[in-house]
Structure formats: C-alpha cells, structure tokens
Amino acid sequence: MQVYLDVSCVNRPFDDQSQPRIQLEAEAVGIVLQRIDDGFWTLASSEIAVLEIQAIANAERCSKVRAILKDPDVFVKLTVDVVDRGRELEKLGFRAADALHIASAEATESDVLLTCDDRLLKRARRFRAQLQVIVANPCDWLKEQDDAADN
C-alpha cells in the first residue's frame, strides 16, 4: 500500500490540539506514519509538498514538517506531465496546489492521497471518477483499512 500525504496531513500533528477533530486527525496521521516506519506501507511525496513546506513562515514548524517527509520511498518532481495533469484538474475546480498534489499522487501510483482539507475532500468525492487515486481523510481511511482487515 502506497500512501501520499498532503501538507495538511503532515502539519496536523503541529496544529492546535484543543479541538477534538484536530486531535483525532493528528493521531491518525501518527498511526499512518508509524505503519510506514514499520514497513507495512510506503510513503510517497512530491516537489509540490516540498515547495509548500518551504513556504511555512514559522521556521521551527517548517523544520518539523520537513522532517516528516524527509525520506519518502517514492518522490515525484513537477514534470511537464504532472503540471499538465494538474491543469486538467484545475479545470474541475481544484485549487492549483491541490491539483498538483493529486497529479503527483497519481504519478507515483499511490493507492491513496490523505488530506485533512475538507474542500479538497468534497471536490474529490464529486469528481471521483476522473481521479486515478483515492482521496480520503486519514481518520476515515484508517477505519476503512481496519474494517477491511477484520473481514
């Protein structure tokens, strides 16, 4: 299983944990990262993730987030093909960075792109048939994985 985490996911452990939803998503991201570290899944990332992380204004947070994605198993650059696919996705109403994350996840042949971004999740559900990767919230996706393992 190959997992692509967008920047909202890798930021989640460093967000204000006073909200229950943020706590749950941070825990889910932690579980995903642990399963990657344990070798159950592989981690995919991209140049767009690196660029977004570099734009984080808080230097300490930027360093912590960068450390999470420092050594992905699969990495894709913003090639002409990825950018062209991103432009196609923008025509469906995805924001530019989100479109590039989806295009990157598709290019890495990831099984899932995990995000905590509700707007991205809603649009991805709407255009599911046009996407070559599942887009899911980490909590929901982990529950599906655990349910599938129980069957």
Short description:
By secondary structure, this protein is of the alpha/beta class. The chain has helices at 7-11, 20-37, 47-54, 59-68, 80-90, 96-107, 118-126, 138-150, and strands at 2-5, 42-46, 74-76, 112-114, 134-136.
Blueprint of the fold:
Blueprint: E1 2-5, H1 7-11, H2 20-37, E2 42-46, H3 47-54, H4 59-68, E3 74-76, H5 80-90, H6 96-107, E4 112-114, H7 118-126, E5 134-136, H8 138-150
Parallel strand pairs: 1-2, 1-4, 2-3, 4-5
Describe the model.
With 151 residues, this protein is of the alpha/beta class. The protein has a single domain, classed as Rossmann fold (3-Layer(aba) Sandwich), CATH 3.40.50.1010. Helix content is 57%, strand content 12%. It contains eight helices and five strands, in the order βααβααβααβαβα. The chain has a five-stranded parallel beta sheet with strand order 3-2-1-4-5. Strand 4 (112-114), helix 7 (118-126) and strand 5 (134-136) form a beta-alpha-beta unit. Helix 3 (47-54) packs antiparallel against helix 6 (96-107) and helix 5 (80-90) crosses helix 6. The longest helix is centred in the first third of the chain and has 18 residues, at 20-37. The protein is globular, with a radius of gyration of 15 Å. The model has no long low-confidence stretch (mean pLDDT 95).
